[in-house]
Amino acid sequence: MAGHAVTLIEASDHLGGTVARQTVGGIDVDAGAESFATRGGTVAALAAELGLAADVVAPATAEAWLQPAVGPAIALPAAAMLGVPATPLARDVIDVVGFPGALRAQLDTIIPSLRVPKSISLGAFVRRRMGRAVLDTLVAPVVHGVYSMHPDDLSIDRVGGLRAALALNGSLAAAVRSLLAAAPAGAAVGGIVGGVNRLVTELEADLETYGVDVQLGRRVTTLGGLAGTVVVAAPGVVSPVDGRSVVLATLVIDEPRLDAAPRGSGVLVALGAPGIRARALTHSTAKWDWLRERADGKHVVRMSYDDDPQNLAEVAREDAATLLGVPIAAGSVVDFARVQWIRPAAVAAPPGITVVGETVGGTGLAGIIAHANRTADELLHGHNGYSTVQL
Hints:
It is built from 12 helices and 19 strands. By secondary structure, it is α/β, with parallel strands linked by helices. Among the domains are: about 80-180, protoporphyrinogen ix oxidase, domain 3; about 245-345, Protoporphyrinogen oxidase, mitochondrial, domain 2 (Polyamine Oxidase, Chain A, domain 2). It has a 7-stranded mixed sheet with strand order 7-6-14-15-16-13-17, with helices on both faces. A 5-stranded parallel sheet has the order 11-1-12-19-18, with no helix packed on it. Strands 4-10-5 form a 3-stranded antiparallel sheet. Helix 2 (about 90-105) crosses helix 4 (about 130-145), helix 3 (about 120-130) runs antiparallel to helix 4 and helix 5 crosses helix 6. About 35% of the residues are buried. The model is unreliable at about 385-390 (pLDDT under 50).
């Protein structure tokens, strides 16, 4: 630890936050984050540093689907970023938004390029450039599935590289095409054999090796009496504990009709889809080959919810059957697990306090790890004054 004595204070009974493990139906699966963005190679570099390079894997090539507000589920357009189509008049875009909606989106290519306001949201920008059909039927369900928010609440600057691409390309569609072309070969997301939670396991082992004093179950309520550079895991120290609730329901199902992966890697749900409470479904054993092998013929399906429905196990089973298009009898559910996470609201760092984590690094392991790495370098090679780091 560069010669420093380090104490890590954690309010809960485990490290890693939403990067956690749970056992469902005898199968170890991720209880929170189950993939990471490969752009920039940040997470893969950390995995390699921890000895996990050989276990970094890409998901299966099964396509993702969309359950629109009206009509049956349909495959998402192949060339898109967060639902924003690279080619608005492509057949698979028309299939989702309809020809009038696709034609309106095509106007993006002739609308004069304007300066992108600093504070504009992705939703407002897509609405302006491509219209409401693309926003409501494509971008909103995808962003909701990825960020647990509406695109009107997502700053355009949290979409990596988009502002710069807009400045260079003159239209939203061209900017998306350029970003897709510049992306590294292979999947846009990656995973780890055994689950992303293995990053935490290996980091914990390193903490022990380097003599870090880890104190679990200790909640920091005040900074009084702390000296030096202190690492704490207490969001309430710098801001009220606030954010969006995400409830995850994981089902282990014994149903051979799911072997064909009828909805690919999963389904995103448009707002207003009748009779469906879930906002997204991941068919985890169709997405990850390593998990399919460990499930021994059973299927792992994960559902996400904005609220916490009563009788969640039954609600999740019914939603899964509807979204996957396959009857799922109650008796075919081998096991069920529920976990609730709070996605913290973004905060500005108060004067004199250094903040890392999702509140400032953004949603996703890649952004959080990159921001934490930069902060660690600044702490080690910059000032020696009083500082608090929120994890």
